[in-house]
Specification:
Blueprint lengths: L15 H10 L3 E11 L4 E9 L3 E5 L9 E6 L3 E11 L2 E6 L3 H16 L20 E5 L5 E9 L3 E5 L9 E4 L2 E9 L2 E6 L5 H8 L1
Length: 209
């Protein structure tokens, strides 16, 4: 059965004046990033970020979503972003984030970092600098306390891609070495992790060097 399309027009539950107020509460900036998002059904789809603020974002996507549907979007540069669909438009939808104040402050810092790397906003943002590792071998500790030898295939200040046969549930907190991280997606060779806190690149090099 076809999923009902999200209508961009305000409804009785959301008057036009309130919708405009919500959208203006946080100024969005044009940032183009490519990532993936997961629906409550656990199905994943590619997406393209077109603008973002600490309160929400607009995504281009190949599927239509229901108003109020919860999603988790993942971008290498930003980590995992949870929110609810608040309106739709041709080819995509807008999301209002649901996050803690700490997470919101962290997102604001990352957005400032991304925008300051370009002379003009709106250009495709680069990914966080990749950290060169002297050794890729690292211990992955699951929530049950089980320690598994793994290989770090890619790392930045916001997360890492780990080669492992383990498939912890998405959203689970694990440890990579001594760093707390959240599982944000599965891939063919293992899992992608988002660090609970954005790391200092020099500290990462010392720790994993």
């Amino acid at each position: 059965m076809r999923t009902p399309v999200v209508r961009s027009a305000p409804t009785a539950a959301e008057p036009a004046s309130r919708a405009v107020t919500d959208r203006r509460r946080h100024n969005r900036v044009p940032v183009v990033l490519f990532g993936r998002f997961m629906r409550t059904s656990k199905h994943e789809y590619p997406c393209k970020l077109i603008d973002i603020s600490v309160g929400g974002c607009a995504l281009m996507a190949p599927v239509e979503l229901e108003l109020g549907e919860k999603i988790i979007a993942y971008f290498d540069q930003l980590g995992g972003l949870e929110g609810n669909v608040v309106r739709g438009f041709a080819g995509g939808f807008a999301v209002q984030f649901t996050m803690t104040a700490h997470k919101r402050e962290k997102l604001a810092s990352i957005l400032m970092f991304i925008l300051n790397k370009h002379e003009q906003p709106g250009l495709e943002a680069r990914r966080h600098e990749r950290i060169a590792l002297k050794s890729n071998s690292q211990t992955l500790t699951l929530a049950e306390g089980i320690a598994i030898s793994s290989e770090v295939s890619d790392m930045s200040i916001s997360g890492a891609s780990v080669v492992t046969p383990a498939r912890p549930e998405i959203g689970t907190i694990v440890k990579l070495g001594n760093l707390n991280a959240r599982v944000v997606r599965h891939h063919e060779r293992g899992i992608a992790l988002e660090f609970v806190d954005v790391q200092n690149p020099n500290a990462l090099r010392r720790y994993f060097g």
